[in-house]
Amino acid sequence: MVIMNLPLSSAGPEALSVALRGADWPAFAPARDLPPLRAALAELERTHGITEAHRFATERLKDAGAVLRHPDGHPAEINGFALSPCGRYLAIGSWCGDDYERGGALQVWELATARCVNVLDGIEGGVGWPGYVRTIQWSADGQRIALAFNTNGVGLWDPFGEETESIGEAYVTDGSSRPPRFAFAPDGTRAYISVWTPHDVRGCLAPLTEGGVYGDDDVELLPEALPADIKARLEDDGLFFSRAFWSKDGTRLHGYGDDWAGAVDVASGQVVWFADAETRGAGPAWSQDERYVARHLRGQLVFADAMTGRTVATAQGHPGATELSWGSRGTVGRLAVVVPGGGRARPRVAVYDDGWHRYDVDVALMEIDRDDVDGTVWAWSPDGLHAAALTDTGRIEVWHLGDGPVRLRSFAAPEEAFGVAWGADGVLVSVSATHLRFVRAATGETTGDFALLQAPPEPRPLELDGDDIGMDLRDEEEARVDPTFALDDETWAVAFESGLVIAPPDRRAALDNLLAWTFDGRFGWPVRWGVLDVVPDAAAAAERAVAPLAEHLAGFRGRTEAPSGPVAWPPPNTATVEDLFQIASTSVAPLDEGWDHHVSENLRHAARLRARRGEPAGAASLLQAIPTPAERVRGQADVALILAATGRHDEARAFLAPAEAEVEAVLDEYNVAFVASSMAGAYAALGDVEAEAWFDRARAAIEPETNPGEHRLAVAWALIECGRVEEARALWREGDTPSTFYSVPLLAYLVLTRRDGLARELLTFRDGAEAWQAQGWFDGWEAPELFASLGRPDLLRDWAAVHGDGYAWEELLTRAEANVRPGPRPTQADLAALAEAHTTLLKTPRTQRERPTEQLIVQAATCGHLGAVVDLLSELSARDFNGRAGYAFRALWITALGADVEPW
């Protein structure tokens, strides 16, 4: 055994070095040997600095499998955390970022070293869900961890292992689209999951060690009938735990629901006790030794026996209390009641010992919503003599709570911190959505301070020809995580597991504050105790790397780094509408058939736009690419109708001919109204007698139950386009108000084709010969937004005359008037706004840039900067229609029409 024969650190570095060289390293047992070895070397460093003994021990650990870890890698904000029962580890989890398939991440941090020691990256569907609590729970022995994951699943993992796939999982909530409420059994093998079963006690016991469990398969229900008085109290809704906890011996579930608290025997399903309780705000809380349960009830603070529910003490209640927190001091149960103040109440923490009020601690604590975040603002020390308080000023205060409260020290918490935890050996951890800070309670010394989700604007070191080699390493399982991380908000670095590091030469000292050698997924080891191989760039790393990493970095060999510095943005505005047509067309080509409906519909819209622009060749190319036969036929007839209506009859017949040949074959019960109306309109615009029969078919096919508004407007558009306005007017007045998804495009069509009278009729109609009354189609924001975009203040005023009350339409009127006579586009103000938004985008984590990029594309298209649009489209995902393809079409509509609506 390595450690037993080591001399004291006071013997000097030479003696310790000799002992380490003579130790039996093959017999090294991490849990037994690494902590005392680390402690001995830490003491040696304090007296002699870093010595050969430190370097030798580090090399032995590397030989035994230690890997280099960085603290970065969450794709989204921290939405859950949990301290292990031993207090030595903190688990933090994140949901998915933009790429749902990438999953979320679970990190395990060792409090003793304040370093990330293990990462499970790529957990399917992410860990938990924003706004949900207790989605991370440890087993009693700290060897397993249960997570709410993948929307509505509960799964089991080894928190110190390497496998991101769950050991077992349960999906029992009938397709619920949110994380289930669950309680992890202390034995680490199963979970109670609250679910609306038909039994009186709602929920099931699901195994987590047997693969997948789905629905009611292989789960144990709690079928025991409720006593009549409890059932009446619950109004026959059943007993449903909104918060449940297992007893330490695994025999009972205790917790609370809406306005009650209680306990259920696991084996029998019988209710052990049940009592009224106030569960909003500071819900009921069980003492650590499970002797007591405290709850508020009718103006009193009630202490009850946790085994029987029998009241053992009462005290004056604390209205507005936000947290009940139990600690222990020997055999004494200590309760802290957090009162934020407000009104005449002073902010304080009331401390009770075994139900007796001891004193108040005069401190104003931060108010957090404990239904949304896992945090606590009051954390007891394990000995119950101290506590850490997260104050409303954003500081953490450490208090001694003996005979009277004494504040010992205070230090800053991370900005927007929502919790503080007191771990083993007096280490405090404060957590925010993007920050972790580790502090020694006894001294205030910060041992670790980590800003997560930083996004330096400069290129990542492993980007090569549009690809990120770091992500490739992760995806191909050559590395557990993407090795690229942020040194700060301006600088990227790379930490390969082997110890090869890419970082600026002058930032070497900063690495020790972020990186750690990690061993066995449990223990951190300071990087300063060994030798890191630090190089300035990927080209140098490629020369230094060994297989298999060398093969991945081969493309960097001999490359000269591009000059650093900001790149001017937006780019030159040289792109055209034709470029947008081409990008939209090519971006849908590789999409799989699951997107055929979206692809077909948008290609048809684009073909209609080409026809309106007098570009039949472009329309033909788009129609040819439509994968759905019915949509292709409909599109051919649409284009024929538009061309014929403008007198281009020969070109119109060229489009109509293939539609005529195929139309009967593509008709089905769902599309007759759409296809028939387009065929009818084309025939009518060409003066063909077939028009009437097709219009009759279209009208007859208007489905009264399924999308009748969409059907009617499709027929109405064909009638208007071929000049039969009265029939269209009569048709759209039939039936109920159509969805704005369909009515707004029609309204835009009427305005763009100068049919203002019809547009006004859609806004209002005459009832007899008296005043105008709203028809109800456009009583929301859609119509005024459209009029503002199209520069039609006259129509906006007409709308406001009927609908303007309660709507801030004056700002839209200013926009509309500005768009009447637009000057050069984009303006200098537009360029400045684009540059500012892009700067903000570059500071956004890459895993969360999708939505801001989409918004910036719309902003660029709206002001006419197509160069910026084209540049940004390349940043969106090409894997599904909602990414690059969808926003290429959307930018096309905005650019060509002036409004964010598909063309009719």
From TrEMBL:
InterPro entries: TPR-like_helical_dom_sf, WD40/YVTN_repeat-like_dom_sf, WD40_rpt. Gene3D superfamilies: Tetratricopeptide repeat domain, YVTN repeat-like/Quinoprotein amine dehydrogenase. Signal peptide: none annotated. Transmembrane segments: none annotated. SUPFAM superfamilies: Calcium-dependent phosphotriesterase (SSF63829), DPP6 N-terminal domain-like (SSF82171), TPR-like (SSF48452). This is WD40 repeat domain-containing protein.
